[in-house]
Amino acid sequence: MESAPGRTLASRLLSFNGLFAVQKPKGPTSAAVLNLLREKLLAEAGMPKPSRRKRSQMLKIGHGGILDSTAAGVLVVGVGKGTKMLSGMLAGSKKYTAVGELGKATDTYDSSGKVIEEKPYDQITKDDLENVLQKFTGNIMQIPPLYSALKKDGQRLSTLVKKGEFVETKPARPVVVYNLTLRNFKPPLFTLELSSCATVRELTRTKQGPFTLEEHALSEDKWTIDEIGQSLERCMLLLQAEPSRKKLKTELSEEHTLSCEDK
Question: pTM of the predicted model, to two decimals?
């Protein structure tokens, strides 16, 4: 028989509604991070691990905005009725830090891919990079890479490409880049298009909407019912204080809101 404290934890967990943020490490997919989060919370509450079919019925949880497995950083999580707010998070600004390697290009544009081209980079200067950054600032048209989490017929483009299937390039779409800053230049480390080539070594999302990596994203050791309960209170107050969030959409978008069952 379940103890009284166990019932209390379970009741509290199932009463959670809102948004909070966790730290996604490099390696697992965003869906895998959510699955682990769910397992830890259910185990703490003394609740049985549900079957895949019944996951959403026992504890509704999802994330808004995929981070690739090779990327790390802020992953916004919705729980309970908060899952209906996730699509609105995509309208908010995001910040990233990236570490690149000059002189190498891979078929996936990151360190997980096969090197397909190598060029010298000794001629590249800091001024060269600064000049290129200006071309990628402001309102630009961006062609989504084939190795991405975008989907075709329910499957990620990256998965189809790895299977050797032909995938048509998605049309360019408008993107706003508010600022690009060159923080370090220690060749070969850094990136961008020049007379050389480059590959992303590390990518970290440091901010999504009002949630920052340093102030709001919970590390795995804090994935507990108590810590998440406190984080929900702080994060929801933060959202309410933002003028831009007063018109936050509350309709769940299947296209942009990904539950932990998505893989």
Answer: 0.79
